[in-house]
Queue: 3 jobs
Job 1
Amino acid sequence: MANEILHIGSVDIEVTFKAIKNLHLSVHPPDGRVTISSPDFYDLEKIKIYAATKLAWIKKEQAKIRSQEREESKLMITQESHQFLGKRYLLKVIEANTPKLVLKHNSIELYTLPEATLEQKQRTLYNWYKKELEAKIGNLIFDYAKLMNISDLNFGMRKMKTKWGSCNIEKRMLWFNIELAKKPINCIEYIVVHEMVHLLERNHNKNFIILMDKFLPNWRVQKKILNELPL
C-alpha cells in the first residue's frame, strides 16, 4: 500500500491505494481529517478530479465536525463535571497520603497528595479510566471473539488524537483510545466490533458492512451517537 497527500484548495487529503474496486471518501472526527481509499490501478490525476468534485461536500462535513460541542479543559477541582461511560459525575478532590480514585453513585472521589499538580491529578484519573476501560473492552472482546471465531489477538489502551481505535492486522493487535472511557458502553461496543471485524475484512467495503450488520445490527445508531457526543 502506498500513501499520497493531495492538496485541493485549502484541503489536504490522504490517499491510500488498496486492492479494492471503488473509491471511498471519508471525513473523520474529531478534527475533520480527509481520507480517500483508492483502487491501486487508479492514477492520482483521476483521484484529484474526483476529490475536486466533492470539495463542497468535504468542507460541509468538516464544518459540521469542527462546530461540534467540545469538552472544556479540566482543572481537576471539586464540583467539576466529568464523564464516565456516558454518565456525568461531579469530582470531589480529597487530600490523602496515597493517590486513588473511588466511583460513587453521582460523584468521583479523587484522593490526591496535598501538593499534587494538575498533571498528577489528571494521571490518577486517566490511569483509572484505562483500568476500567480495559476491563470493559476485555469482556466485549472475549464475547465477540467467540461469535466471530477469532483467536490469538491482543489489545491495549492509549491516547489518540484522531481515532477511537485501530487494528494492526499483521500483529493481530487492537488499540483503543482512552477517551472512550467517557462514552456510553454501546458506543464502546461499536468501536470494539468495528476493529475486530477488520481482522476478518481489512477494507471498508461491502463485505465489511455485511459483517458489521451481522455482528452488531444497530451499529449505525451507535456510530451516530458517538460522533455527536462532545469531543
Job 2
Amino acid sequence: MATPLLEARDISKRFGRLQALHHVSIALPRGQTLALVGDNGAGKSTLIKILAGVHQPDSGEIWFEHRRVHLGSPTQARRLGIETVYQDLALVESMSIARNFFLGAEPARRVGPVSVLDTAKMHRTAESYLREIGITSLTTAEKEIRLLSGGERQAISIARAMYFGAKVMILDEPTSQLSIKEARKVLDYIRDVTARGLSTIFITHNLSHVYPVADVIVVLYHGRKVGEFLKGTADPSVIESLIVKGDTEPADRAGGN
C-alpha cells in the first residue's frame, strides 16, 4: 500500500459502559478511497467523528501527513484539510447554491465605508468551479437548495469541500436516500475527486456502492476491525458474513450444528 496520508492507529473509545471502538487502525493513502462498512452499532460513526475532531479517542493516535496530530475540534480537522460531509449535509434550504457554497466564508467588497457580500463573485466562482470538476447539471448558482435533487445536494457539498482545500473527505452515507440514478452520479463524483488526488473515506451500508469506487474496504463489527481488503480481492460473501457475524464461519458451524 502507498504511504498513508491519514492514519488512525490503535484507536479505542468508550461511552460509559459502551466500548464503541476496540483498538481500530486504518490507513488512507493519498488519492484513494477507503470504504468503511458495518452494520448499525459497528463503530463507523464513532470512528469518523474522531477523525473529524468531534470526539477524542481514549487511546491511540491520529497521524496526518507523516506527523502525529491532535484533533481537538472539527475546526482543527478542517484546518488540516479533513472535511466531513454528513448525511444531513448542513445546507440551508432557502439559500442559493452560491450562498451555500461559500457559507461561513463569504467574499465581501467595499462600497464606500461599508463591506457588503460580493454576490456576483460568489455566483461566478461557484458556477465556474462546478463546471471545472464535471458537475454540469447545475448551470446556475442562483437556484435555491430546496429545489435540488439529493444527488445535486451531495455534489454541492463535495465541491465546496474541494474548493476550500480539503485533502481528505469523509462521506457519511452519501447515497443512502438517493435513487439508483442519483446514487450512480454521486459514485461518479467520488471517482472524479479521487482521480484529482483527493482521498476519501466512504461510509455506507450498501455494498453494491462500495465495489465500483473503493480501493480499500474495512469492515467493523461491534467496534472491532474484523476485515480489510484491497480492491479486487474482496469476496462479497465474505464481507457480508463479516458485517453480519464478525467472522466468516458458515451459518451451520456458527450456530453449533
Job 3
Amino acid sequence: MQKIIFISFVSLILSVFNNTKAQQFIMNSQYMINAFAINPAAAGTKTYAPLVLDVRRQWTGIREAPVGQHLSYHTSLTEQIGVGGYLYNDVAGPSRRTGLMLAFSSQIKLSTGQYLSLGLGGSMTQYVFDRDKLVTEEAYDPTVANYATNLLVPDLNAGLKLYGENYHLGWSMFNLIQSRSDLFDIMTPVTNNLQRTMYFTGSYIVPLTSNDMFFLEPSAVIRMMFNAPMTFDLNLRLLHESGFWFGASYRYRDAIALMVGFSTNKLGISYSYDINTSALRSYNSGSHEVTLTYKAKNRKGNKSFNGGKYKVINCPSF
C-alpha cells in the first residue's frame, strides 16, 4: 500500500509539472512545518494541537521588500472533527494584506492508519494601500489621492488531505468566491478579481537505519494560478531521533533554501535562509524565515498514531 501511495505521489508531481501553470498565494519556505497555512483540511490531523508563529523577511537589502507574520492554531473537537484559526499580515511596499481564516475539517477513516480529511475555511481580509508611501511623477497625483483605498474582502477555501503514519497527499484551493478587489480603481471598466490559487502537496518519511535513528523526508509543494506561471518547491529533510533536522529546498527559477531545526515533545524551532537564483540575486542578500511551534495537548484527536517507530514525526509534517 505504501509503495502504491508513493508511486502515485511521484506520478502526480510529474504530471502537474508537465502541463500546468501557477503562482503562489503566500511566500514561505517552511511549508512542511505548518500545513494548515495552505490547507484547511490539515486542521485536527495532528496528535497534538500546534500553535505556530512564522516570521519572514524577504529579499533583505531591497527597500520595502515583503515581510510577513503568521500565527495559527488547530486542534480536534472529536476524533473526526478538527477546527483551527489562522492570522496573517503580509506587507509589500505600500500594500498590506491582513486577515483571519477559520477552518473546519472532518476526518474519514479509510483503513487502519489511513485517513482522508475534508476541510472548508472562511476568511476575512483587509487589503490596504498606503498612498503616503507612493512617489509619483506628478506631485499630489489625483488618481492616487482620490482612488487608492482599502477594502475588506470575504472569501472561502477548501482542501483535501490523504494521510497515514508516514505519508501525506494534499490539495487545496483559495479564493473560491473570487471577490472583486479594486484597490486601484481608476474609473475604468477593468474588473480585478482575486484569482483562485491551488496547492498540491506531498511528503513521505523513509527510515534510513534499522535502529530508527535517522529518517529522510522528501516533500513537494506546487502552486497554481490560472493566469500566471506555475511554481513549485522540492524539499528534502534529514531527521534524527533526538529532534534535530536539517534540509534544503529548491524553488523553481527563484531560490535555494537552506533549513535547520530542532523539535521536542513540546516545542519546535526552525530557521531557513533563501538564496536567490533569479535576476533578483544581484539586488538582495537573501530571505530569512523563523518558525516557532508550541505543541499543546490534543485530547480529542486521533489516537491511531502513537509515534510507532517514527519517533521524530509521528506523521508527515504537511
